[in-house]
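Progress against Task 2.4 (sequence-to-structure conversion) is shown through the following example record, which the project officer requested during the mid-term review.
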Amino acid sequence: MTAPYATLTEALDDLKRRGYTLDFDLQPDHIACSTPQMQLQPEEFEIVEVYRFEGASSPDDNDVVYAIEGKHGQKGVMTDAYGAYASQFSTNMLAKLRIHTT
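Structure tokens generated for the chain above:
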């Protein structure tokens, strides 16, 4: 989805206002949150919104923001750079993310 936001910060601020308050990190076979400490397997969450941001001056400035909802009501965001998906990720994680990045 093309970002309706001008900046990454604007997207993160709006998602936080809408209840996406957890910060998830991408791991090879799950996503993790440090506060509160939790791990969600691919079957335990859905990516409900995706926003892509392209840097004007460098491809290194490209980012993706994922709005994530867990099966038990957890809501948070995860950010990642384009092209970061490599062979270290499980098949299930790649399938979950690929749906939203093609």
